[in-house]
Amino acid sequence: MIYRTQSVAYPYFVVALLLFVLQVLMGLWLGINYFATIPQEIVDAFPFSTARAMHTNLLVLWMLLGFMGATFYLVPEETGSELAWPKMAIAQLVILTVTGVVALVGFLFGWTQGRPLLEIPRPLDVVVVIGALMFLANVGVTIIRAKRWTATQGSLLAGLVFLAVMYLFGIPFYENISVDWYYWWWVIHLWVEGAWELIAAAITAFMLIKLTGVDRRVVEKWLYVELGLFLFTGIAGTGHHYYWLGTPRYWLWVGGIFSALEPLPILLMVVDTWRDVRDRTTRLEPRLTWVYMFGMVILHFVGAGLFGFAHTLPAINYYTHGSQVTVSHGHLAFYGAYALLNLTFFYFAIPRLKGMPDHAYDERTGHWGFWLMSLGVLGLSLAFAVAGVLQTYLERVQGQPYIVSQEPIRLWMLIAFLHGLVVLAGVVVTVRHLLTLKPAAAQHG
Ligand code: HEM
Ligand code: HEM
Ligand SMILES: [Fe+2]
What we know:
The chain has helices at residues 9-35, 40-45, 48-79, 86-108, 122-146, 151-169, 177-212, 216-236, 250-261, 263-280, 287-310, 314-320, 324-353, 364-397, 402-406, 410-435. The protein is built from 16 helices and no strands. The protein is globular. Among the domains are: 1-149, Four Helix Bundle (Hemerythrin (Met), subunit A); 283-435. By secondary structure, it is mainly α. The protein binds protoporphyrin IX containing FE (2 copies) and fe (ii) ion. The site of fe (ii) ion (FE2) has 4 residues, from helix 7.
């Protein structure tokens, strides 16, 4: 930590980590619903849809808080100045966290807008918008006052503004249900395959510059190429959600062609990160931070690129649409790209925020956390994938009724749940480790 105001990032990380634990607990409860028969009284009091809304909204909330914390850490160093309004940053955290808690409690009482991932009711949307404006104003004013632009903070800001603007399209309710879903995807798809990718690229570039000491032009030059590709394939790629919505036929072509290109920039990023690192550093320290960094680029590519591509062509999506195949991809992509991005940043920033010598920390239990969590999510996603292929075959090729075809799938959902227990163990170890990070033992002299 070089600037005093960077410290506002820490409480963001803490809240994000606690919400992450809660998200995974909800996931386990969802998993149980798929292989056990839940007593009706419990279903009436706490339906699957409520738990699902909690699981996914917690996901979005903790990741966004993580991005915001990372931004508050990054912007002072990039601009070479203190954050404009550190107290407002804390107020914003309180506002957004309280809104999140109110939303979660509201779901329990059926207070919801209904659309997946964007369930939070409209009055709370207004508060979220206020929180987002506070955030953008704080970051924007800091950058403008400092008058020092870098490609890294430029793409970060572009991603954040794009993210906020897209959220607005999810607020109104359009009476025509096709139109409603059309815009729903502007939020969901253009977030994870547009805005969030820009943010991820910027945050990764920042960490690479700081961790390797490499000339920033080398990393940032690639940032431009990648940003261009992300935007190009990401925006047209929205079409892979428009196949069966009642939108015009040309979307079959646009969605099929462009989204098939989407994995390319991710692959470039993987290869280039590796090349940068190999050429310019002699040792990769701290080890665990790099394990996270590589874990992120690999699982980002596999989860989003490979698992995404597997069902993006219309001829395949015709069968797999909305099945457990989708759920499989959703888990591996979100975990690989954005859970690991956040955790990598936490491991990068917390030793600096706590002023640990050489930014080195005691890594031991942290490795356990990483592997339990990552292998757990991989197993979970593969089990969902098997369940999804079975479901697709039984229900859509053979034409079995939905509920009949669910029966053989139970086993695979149980296997998914068992992997979920491993994920939970990994998450608990990781969160504990991060929240009690200690300086490295003196062996390095
Ligand atoms: C990090 C990036 C990504 C994340 C986090 C992500 C996440 C998700 C999630 C959560 C869904 C389910 C949405 C729902 O219906 O509720 C989804 C659907 C989908 N994703 Fe991704 N995705 C990513 C990148 C990609 C890429 C690069 C491709 C294509 C190559 C892709 C192809 C698809 C397709 C075709 C669907 C629709 C599946 C269906 O018809 O049911 N995704 N994605
Ligand atoms: C203990 C581990 C977990 C289990 C057992 C679990 C289970 C589930 C289940 C059963 C669903 C509902 C699927 C449906 O509607 O049919 C779901 C949805 C979802 N979960 Fe998890 N989850 C876990 C952890 C995670 C993690 C770590 C992430 C991301 C980092 C995540 C992201 C998601 C997403 C994005 C959806 C929506 C998927 C879609 O719409 O296709 N989950 N989860
Ligand atoms: Fe998409």
